[in-house]
């Protein structure tokens, strides 16, 4: 006789089902992880953004400091020149800073320059209101960055003339009754040749100081004071201030001014352009040199004169 099986249904009480649901919800951490990530991502973004802005600030501060340092050094060199003045020096500082640390038009640099009354020192500062990339998230949009620098000129010697050739004989050479007067400034030759400065045929030179890196030969001239030899070389004070202009087309001098190229006293070695008559010359490039000689009285119109591939001789 077969036995019939029966299935009995068991109903879970409500309170037990509620307890099981609560246990499952309590064990599920997915919502908590999302909440924690949302909170920490803001902090992580702030840290990463802050690091990026800090790097940008450090780079800009370094760039600005380098520009101010270069500007004050150039201004210090300008102060070595006899005709320097405070306005020109301040202009040099402003230009060099702006060129080396450019800033967008909407936030131009604030540059301040001070030159001592005796023109032996210059101080400069430059401020940039630097915009942050991520600073807006924490309420800081702009950070002022300021760089300062000071340069001092040792001594009060001012240059009227400096020859730059490091090895030329007679880099400063006066002859034939030449008269050179450097009022309240100095004559200086960077050449280390034994006859870096030469004076012949009763030439006269007067200056606060006459100095040669090498030696001198002035027995047949009158130099006052006598040449000081063994002086230290001086770097070109204009090298960081003025860019050498490129030569242009050769200037043609009127035939009425002289005998023409290479035909004047001294021949071609004295320059391709010889001026023996009184005349007025215009700025430009004088190819092969320029020789002004005899009784010529020459007026130079304002501008830049380039003496190319030859000497400038005035005798």
Provide a short characterization of the protein structure.
With 315 residues, the chain is α/β, with parallel strands linked by helices. The chain has three helices and 18 strands. The strands form six sheets. Strands 4, 6, 8, 10 and 11 form a five-stranded parallel beta sheet that branches. A three-stranded antiparallel beta sheet has the order 1-2-3, with helices on one face.
Structure characterization notes:
The chain is of the alpha/beta class. It contains three helices and 18 strands. The strands form six sheets. Strands 4, 6, 8, 10 and 11 form a five-stranded parallel beta sheet that branches. It has a three-stranded antiparallel beta sheet with strand order 1-2-3, covered by helices on one side. Strands 5-7-9 form a three-stranded parallel beta sheet, with no helix packed on it. It is elongated, with a radius of gyration of 39 Å. The chain starts with 13 loop residues before the first helix and ends with a strand.
Shape descriptor: elongated
Determine the strand fraction and express it as a percent band. Answer: 25-35%
* Average pLDDT rating: 81
> How do the helices and strands follow one another from N- to C-terminus?
HHHEEEEEEEEEEEEEEEEEE
Largest sheet: 5 strands, parallel
- Alpha-beta classification: alpha/beta
Number of strands: 18
Helical content band: 10-25%
Total helical elements: 3
Distance between the first and last residues' Cα: 151 Å
CA-based gyration radius: 39 Å
The stretches of 5 or more residues where confidence is low (pLDDT under 50) are 264-270
């Amino acid at each position: 006789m077969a036995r019939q099986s029966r299935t009995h249904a068991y109903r879970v009480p409500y309170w037990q089902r509620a307890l099981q649901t609560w246990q499952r919800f309590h064990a599920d951490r997915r919502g908590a992880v999302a909440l924690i990530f949302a909170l920490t991502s803001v902090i992580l973004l702030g840290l990463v953004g802050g690091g990026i802005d800090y790097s940008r600030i450090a780079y800009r501060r370094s760039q600005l400091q380098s520009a101010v340092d270069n500007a004050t050094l150039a201004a210090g060199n300008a102060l070595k020149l006899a005709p320097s003045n405070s306005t020109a020096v301040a202009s040099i500082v402003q230009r060099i800073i702006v060129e080396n640390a450019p800033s967008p038009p909407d936030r131009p640099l604030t540059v301040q320059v001070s030159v001592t009354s005796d023109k032996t020192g210059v101080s400069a500062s430059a401020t940039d209101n630097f915009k942050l990339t991520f600073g807006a998230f924490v309420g800081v949009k702009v950070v002022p960055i300021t760089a300062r620098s000071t340069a001092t000129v040792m001594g009060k010697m001012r240059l009227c003339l400096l020859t730059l050739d490091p090895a030329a004989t007679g880099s400063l050479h006066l002859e034939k009754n030449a008269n050179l007067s450097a009022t309240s400034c100095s004559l200086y030759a960077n050449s280390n040749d034994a006859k870096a400065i030469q004076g012949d045929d009763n030439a006269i030179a007067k200056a606060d100081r006459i100095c040669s890196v090498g030696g001198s030969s002035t027995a047949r001239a009158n130099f006052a004071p006598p040449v000081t030899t063994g002086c230290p070389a001086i770097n070109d004070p204009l090298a960081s201030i003025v860019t050498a202009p490129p030569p242009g087309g050769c200037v043609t001098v009127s035939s009425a001014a002289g005998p023409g190229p290479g035909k004047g006293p001294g021949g071609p070695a004295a320059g391709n352009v010889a001026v023996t008559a009184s005349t007025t010359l215009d700025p430009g490039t004088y190819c092969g040199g320029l020789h002004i000689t005899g009784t010529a009285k020459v007026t130079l119109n304002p501008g830049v004169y380039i003496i190319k591939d030859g000497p400038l001789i005035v005798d």
